[in-house]
Amino acid sequence: METKDIQSQDIFDRIMSLPVLRIFEPFYKKYKEGLMYLFFGGLTFFLSIFLFWFMDSVMHINEVVNNTIDWVICVAFQFFTNRTWVFDGKVDTKKDFFKQAGSFTLGRLFTLVVEDVLIYIFITLMGFPKMPVKLAATFVVIVLNYIISKLIVFRKKED
User: Does residue 88 surpass a pLDDT of 70?
Assistant: First the structure.
C-alpha cells in the first residue's frame, strides 16, 4: 500500500487491514458506516446507562435532571465520534462546522425531549422501574438519532 493510502485511512481501516482480520475486510468496507454507528452508539449507550445509574444511585439526582446531564455529556461524545468516524463529516469552513454542530445539537435536543417525556411518563408518573425504562427510551433515541444524523446532519452534498 502506498504511503498516501495509509495516511488517508482511519484507525479502524488500519485495524481491518491487519493480516488476521483481512478476511472480514470486504464486509467491513461494505457496511462500515453502520458498523461504526453501532460501535460508537454502543459506547455511548453504555456511557449513558452508567451515568444515569451513577447520578441516580450515588448522587440521588431526579431522573429527568439526571437524564439531561447525561445527555449533555453523551452528545459531546457522539458529535465527535459521528463526525470523525461514522459519517465522515469533514467540512471546509468554520461556518459549515458550526452549521453541522448546530443541526446535530438540534436533532439531539429533539430526541432528548422524546427521551425525557418517556422517562417522565413511565418513571415519574407511572412508577415503572428506572433502568428498564431508561434502556427502552435509549433504544428509541438511538434509532431516531441515526435517522436524523444520516438524513440531515451529515448528509453528503450533491455536486
Answer: yes
Q: What one-character-per-residue DSSP string does 74-86 give?
A: HHHHHHHHIIIII
Q: Which has the closest alpha carbon to 42: 133, 146, 117?
A: 146
Cell numbers at 99, concatenated:
452549521
Say if CB 70 and CB 48 are below 8 A apart. yes
Cβ 41 vs Cβ 142: under 8 Å: yes
Q: From CA 154, how far away is CA 104, in angstroms rounded?
A: 8
Q: Which three cell numbers stand for residue 91?
A: 467540512
Say which residue the cell 479502524 belongs to: 12
CB atoms within 10 A of CB 108: 24
pLDDT tens-place string over residues 135-150: 999 889 888 888 888 7
Q: What are phi and psi of 9, to 5 degrees?
A: -85, 145
Residue type, 78: Q
Helix then strand then coil, in percent of the chain rounded to 5, is 80, 0, 20
